[in-house]
Amino acid sequence: MKRKEKRLERAENHFYRGDYDEAMREYGILLKDYPDLQEARIGAILSDIAVENDEEAQALFEYYQVLKEEGNEEAERIIEEMIGSLDQALEKISDLLEGTLLGNDEPENGINYRDFKELVELRGSFRRAFEDIMFSTRVIISEKEDLLDFIRQLVDNGFNEMAMRYIEGAALAYPGEEKIQDLIEKLKG
C-alpha cells in the first residue's frame, strides 16, 4: 500500500474514532503533499465540522464512504453540496437563535413557534431542531393549537418528561381539552 493510501486510511480511522484533531492533522499533511486530493479535502472539512457537530459530520462521512465504495464518480460533488446545505442550515439556526428573524414585537429571549417550525423543516426532523435549541433558548407558543402540536411532537419524539411538564401546564390552562387527555393516554401507552 502506498504512503498516500496508508495516511488516508489512518486519517479515516481517526475520524471514525472521533479523534477529529488527529484526523485533521493527517488530512492536512495529505493536502500539503497532494493539494488536489479531494478525499483529503473533504475529510479535512468534515473533521472541522465534526468538532462542533459530531453527529452530522459522521453521517456525511459515512455517506461519502458509501458513495466511494459504490464507485460514484460524483461522490465529492454530492458531499460538497450536502456540506453547503448543512452550512446554510446552521447559519439559519444561528440567525433564528440570535433573533434576527423574529419580528420587532417578538420577545428576544426565545424563538416563536412559527420560526421553530421553520427550523424543524430546515433540520429535517423535530428531534434535531429541538436538540439544537433546548439548552440555549425557549420556544414561545401563544396559540392553543400550536401548544398541542408542540406537545404532540415532544411525545412522538421521546421527550416524555418534558411533554408531561407541558401537559400539566396545558391541563390547567385548558381544562377538559380532549387532545390533552389523548396525549396523556399516549404517554401512558
Protein described:
The protein is mostly helical and 189 residues long. It has 3 domains: 3-86; 99-138, no CATH class; 141-189. Helices cover 75% and strands 2% of the residues. The protein has 10 helices and 2 strands. It has helices spanning 3-17, 20-33, 38-52, 54-69, 75-98, 113-123, 126-133, 144-156, 160-173, 178-188, and strands at residues 111-112, 139-140. A two-stranded parallel sheet has the order 1-2. The longest helix is centred in the middle third of the chain and has 24 residues, at 75-98. It is elongated, with a radius of gyration of 22 Å. Mean pLDDT is 81; it is low at 100-107.
Helical amount: over 70%
Q: What spatial form do the alpha-carbon principal axes imply?
A: elongated
Which structural class do the helices and strands define? mainly alpha
Describe the strand arrangement of the main beta sheet, using strand numbers: 1-2
Largest sheet properties: 2 strands, parallel
Distance between the termini: 56 Å
The count of β-strands is 2
The fraction of residues assigned to DSSP E strands is under 5%
